[in-house]
Amino acid sequence: MLLPERLQTLRLTLRKPRKADAMHIFDAYAQDIEVAQYMVWRPHQFVGETNDFILYCIQEWASGRSRPYVLVHTENDDIPIGMLEARIFSNTIDLGYVLQRSSWGAGLMSEAIDAVSNAALALPECFRVQATCDTENHASARTLQKCGFAREGQLERHTILPNLGAEPRPSLMYARCR
Ligand SMILES: CC(C)(COP(=O)(O)OP(=O)(O)OC[C@H]1O[C@@H](n2cnc3c(N)ncnc32)[C@H](O)[C@@H]1OP(=O)(O)O)[C@@H](O)C(=O)NCCC(=O)NCCS
After folding, report:
1. Residue bearing the CA closest to ligand 1, atom 10
2. 156-166 pLDDT per residue, tens
3. Between 20 and 30 A from 121 (CA), which of 7, 44, 75, 148?
4. Ligand 1: centre distance to CA 115 (Å)
5. In this structure, is residue 170 part of a structural domain?
6. What pTM was estimated for this model as a whole?
7. 80 DSSP β-pair partners
8. What are the pLDDT digits (tens) for 45-70?
């Protein structure tokens, strides 16, 4: 599925990752335990971890397996404030997303999710955009609802969130289809 390399929203640009993004992402949110709480990774202790992650994202773009977009304010293309990954399955795109804490609550991630979902569902081979979130991640669930995603159900023992314990936790499945 050929999602575009660049997407534009009212306030944001979604673009391909660059090596230089790692330092900014490390400073902006990768070390932040509150940001990482419901993510599948632990807060980064060293910038080298963020470097490795960005290299992995660059490889993902090259392989076509997924599109991990970096989110920047359009007027400040060099400074990442978050990421939105679109993982590509046969007829489905699965989203994962994160934003620096200082940008929460301003509708930015809704803007980004809406733009990626519209672009995906405009592709002839894409019929479904989905995302899961922890049952206690109310901000994430609300963000998906605002973007027109329907709650389809609860997935028991679905995801281990290492910052919240060693056992898999329940997730909610949300999707927007055409
Ligand atoms: C989830 C996240 C991406 C949302 O980004 P955002 O730009 O703040 O989202 P938006 O501003 O578009 O929308 C957030 C909505 O959740 C609401 N919200 C925030 N905290 C909430 C809470 N604890 N309970 C209920 N609703 C909450 C906001 O009020 C807003 O809804 P509203 O516009 O109706 O008032 C951001 O909080 C984040 O990065 N969290 C950490 C990483 C994460 O959890 N990622 C998702 C993993 S599934």
Report:
1. 107
2. 999 999 999 99
3. 75
4. 17
5. no
6. 0.98
7. 72
8. 999 999 999 999 999 999 999 999 99
